[in-house]
Amino acid sequence: MNKEFTLQSDIEVFSVPDGVKTLLTKGTPGIITQSLGDNFTVVVEGNMYQIKGIDAEAIGEEKQVIVSNNFANEEEVWNMLQTCYDPEIPVNIVDLGLVYDCTVEEKKEGVNVSIKMTLTAPGCGMGPVIADEVKEKVSSLHGTNNVEVELVWEPQWNQDMMSDAAKLQLGLY
Question: Does any domain span residue 49?
């Protein structure tokens, strides 16, 4: 994408890859390198950050929020998971093979969802940020009672876990 911008307001962002919350100040120039799901990956002063779509106006873009009007069921949960991205990789977490298990249980009080997922590298500081995004998005589905997201490390992720489409998109074929 590589679109230049100047911050139009102060904004809290997450630094990539360590996931540390950081404040960027109004007037600072940067470059949008990726816009996927409802988040942006930007480079400011040589550092990479993730900006949530709800804060897009700070970089001169239209506010982006993924919302579903659908009831929570297994298909809709997987659809929502496909809107989540690692900020360094232009492929969603499902096609990357990062979601190991997704259990959807309908209960009297609502739908409970349990997700086991991993990261491309155990030391990735963005893990909690990505897991929070998954929880937030799945929780937004109507009828959701509880969403649990667990980061797991077994089996260790490798490129063979990616879908064929992801491998093709990343030039691994």
Answer: yes
Residue 34 is predicted with a pLDDT of 95
Per DSSP (E only), the strands in 45-91 are 47-52
Say what the pLDDT of residue 122 is.
87
Contacts of 52 (CB under 8 A, 6+ apart): 38, 39
Angle at 170 between CA 36 and CA 119, to 5 degrees: 65
CB atoms within 10 A of CB 147: 20
Per DSSP, 53 falls in state: G
Same-domain pairing of 159 and 80:
yes
User: In a 3-state reduction of DSSP, which class is residue 76?
Assistant: helix
Q: Which range marks the domain in which residue 30 is found?
A: 3-59
Cα angle 107-110-116, degrees, rounded to a multiple of 5: 80
In terms of pTM, does the model score above 0.85? yes
> Would 66 be classed as within a structural domain?
no
| Residues of the chain where predicted confidence (pLDDT) is lower than 50 | none
